[in-house]
Write a structure and sequence with these properties.
The protein is mostly beta strands. It has one helix spanning about 60-80, and strands at about 1-10, 15-25, 35-40, 55, 85-90, 95-100, 105-110, 115-120, 125-135, 135-140. The longest helix is centred in the middle third of the chain and has 20 residues, at about 60-80.
Length: about 150
């Protein structure tokens, strides 16, 4: 799985440097061990005075890069080496990530008789609660160990 986005920054010699952010998930390195790749193309030469690679950008571009890195990190963490798993709604627990085009995380879960009340949190930080029959099958992208 690979996702990416690109930005242009300026190096120490005032040349444009395309920067790319991509999530590359190797099955044996899923979850916390997955890699987020940041590439500079072409790679800038080290500064003669410091020997460091230096580049700069506007605050808006820095925020955009930071947001892309957060999205890539979440995608890498949410990737599962085993693939999606399906559980009953009453078995959901905080931290589980629902599979789908727009991943969402279980922020809270409680059961009231035959109804499971699940509070979801989106990547954007919005939360809402949905009620399900306890037997409803929910497909998860990532299952966290532990209990509610």
């Amino acid at each position: 799985m690979t996702a990416g986005s690109g930005f242009t920054f300026t190096d120490a010699e005032n040349h444009d440097v395309p920067v790319g952010v991509a999530t590359v998930v190797v099955p044996e390195e899923a979850g916390a061990d997955a890699r987020v790749s940041v590439t500079l193309s072409p790679t800038p030469a080290p500064s003669p005075s410091t020997g460091e690679l230096r580049w700069s950008c506007t605050p808006a571009a820095a925020r955009e890069l930071a947001a892309a890195l957060v999205r890539a990190a979440e995608e890498a963490e949410n990737a599962s080496a085993e693939g999606p798993v399906t559980v009953r709604a009453d078995e959901l627990r905080r931290g589980d990530v629902r599979d789908g085009e727009r991943p969402m995380t279980v922020d809270g879960a409680r059961t009231d008789g035959s109804t499971a009340h699940i509070t979801w949190k989106s990547v954007e930080g919005r939360t809402w609660t949905q009620s399900y029959d306890v037997n409803t099958a929910i497909t998860l992208r990532r299952r966290l160990p532990g209990t509610r």
